[in-house]
Amino acid sequence: MQRLAMDLRMLSRELSLYLEHQVRVGFFGSGVGLSLILGFSVAYACYYLSSIAKKPQLVTGGESFSRFLQDHCPVVTETYYPTVWCWESRGQTLLRPFITSKPPVQYRNELIKTADGGQISLDWFDNDNSTRYMDASTRPTILLLPGLTGTSKESYILHMIHLSEELGYRCVVFNNRGVAGENLLTPRTYCCANTEDLETVIHHVHSLYPSAPFLAAGTEAGESLEPRRWRLQRAEITPLHSSLGNRARLRLTRTKTHTKKDMMKRYAFPNKNLMIIFFSLLLLSYCHPVWAEAIPIETAKQNPNVALVLTSYGGHIGFLEGIWPRQSTYMDRVFKQFVQAMVEHGHELS
């Protein structure tokens, strides 16, 4: 057996040397292999730059909102370069949880009661070390809405918090009932038709910091608010909804357009900051023809408070970019520029 093992090792070594010599001389040494690799690389680069990397399509229902985004959120008009080896939306969605880093975040948990006897878990990042907004009472608050089964531990939520920390803002994550480890006190769990929980959270957060600018950002357009009342809910409940989400779940209907005066009658919040900003920016992908048909572009054009940023590739929680997309993504850059624009320049839209 020892002799056989020695013979096998010798044979393997000789075979390796032979293959190495043949590949070096017969493939690369002749220049054919190098030419094929260079030719393939050039063809791939040309295809990527001509068909994959494109500027997003910006669809807005109002000229003032369009100018506002171009001035203060320039990322929505810049070319999006998805990861060169994974640009398809489903591939990016599957890849992101495994490849994207998770910045460390220390939360402060709060459980609030609901009218039906249930409870909601809120994870706060107070950002008390903020040098831009040292006064907690006026520090901007970003309400983050994870996806269907997401929690405050998702990588995209952690990156949003990290970016908000850089801007000096405070964040609070709304965990849907029963998904963040808290006890489920009632049979009621998550349902897209249930907007009462979100209303409860918004009123609670605003009551704690009535003088602070208040914005909301989510990851799935049809998950957090009832799609059938899209205009009504977005305008009345969420002053800002940066929905970075799923194309197929997004449905806009031709409902009655409510004026700011009508909205103030129903939700007369004591602080005007909650009502001034009620514009929505949605980052979507139309890389699949079925999904492209589901995006209500014409309906969005009729709403001056809505903007769609449509990319050719990427999608959902993906929108990866760079050779090795461990850190910030295109979605993160849109989020950071948009919330900063609304906090610092939102008065231009009022």
TrEMBL record:
Keywords: Membrane, Transmembrane, Transmembrane helix. InterPro entries: AB_hydrolase_4_sf (IPR050960), AB_hydrolase_fold (IPR029058), ABHD4 (IPR012020). The chain crosses the membrane at residues 25-49, 273-291. It comes from the Eukaryota. GO terms for molecular function: acetylesterase activity; monoacylglycerol lipase activity; phospholipase A1 activity; phospholipase A2 activity. GO terms for biological process: medium-chain fatty acid biosynthetic process; medium-chain fatty acid catabolic process; phosphatidylcholine metabolic process. Signal peptide: none annotated. Belongs to the AB hydrolase superfamily. AB hydrolase 4 family. This is Abhydrolase domain containing 3, phospholipase. It comes from Cercocebus atys (Sooty mangabey).
